[in-house]
Amino acid sequence: MLGSYLPILLLALVLGSGTQWWVNSSFRRYSKVALATGMSGAEVARVMLDSHGLHQVQVERVAGDLTDHYDPKANVLRLSQSVYDGRSVAAAGVASHEAGHAVQHAKGFIFARLRMSLVPTAQLGSNLAFPMIFVGLFINISGLVTVGIVLFAAAVLFQLITLPVEFDASRRALESMSVGGVLPAEQVSGARAVLTAAAMTYLAAALIAVMQLLYFVGLSRR
């Protein structure tokens, strides 16, 4: 069993490492390109939020690198220091992308709503699926394996629904920066490169998750 699963683990390692390197490399590269308008990431996010009437959404600084996220429960956009204070194309791209999630939440974007509804089940699946599947296979209890696969399927569905959420946030970000005059036409490609690299990490994770699910389903039928 372990031998046949090894190729998936190796592919996961390669894709995970490769896409993470791509993200870090793209962010570092465009962090050195000053935003022509001279705005900070926090200011870029504020402009995008205000342009959609989201004056109530706060923008805060958070510790860590690329820890940027929107918290729908607190209605707060949290940006890492390099993005919050950064005045680069990379900082503008990441800040506006996260602001895009706030816009999705405000407008009731269907995939964002579905993703939120799946969070508890996906967390349960991520924590329990693998132990249940491997223990079930080891002691030959098919029911335990089946439950584990169902839980893992929920986690996979969460990752698949994440894809349109992330792609749409990037689309909104680029559109808002271009229309709002935050990002000059000649710098659009740089912001797009950063956001594309980030999107590929989600795509790689979803691909690996689907492969794992198919593997476990096939294994359970032997």
Notes on the structure:
By secondary structure, this protein is mainly alpha-helical. It has one domain (2-35, 88-220). The chain contains seven helices and three strands. The chain has helices spanning 2-31, 41-51, 81-84, 89-107, 110-138, 142-179, 188-220; strands spanning 58-62, 69-71, 76-80. A three-stranded mixed beta sheet has the order 1-3-2. Strand 2 and strand 3 form a beta hairpin. Helix 2 packs parallel to helix 4 and helix 4 (89-107) packs across helix 7. The radius of gyration is 20 Å and the shape is elongated. The N and C termini lie close together (11 Å). The relative contact order is 0.16.
Structural class from helices and strands?
mainly alpha
Largest sheet: 3 strands, mixed
The averaged pLDDT comes out at 92
The Rg value, from CA coordinates, equals 20 Å
β-strand amount: 5-15%
Low-confidence sequence ranges = none
Give the strand tally.
Answer: 3
Shape category: elongated
Placed side by side, the strands forming the largest sheet appear as: 1-3-2
Helix segment tally: 7
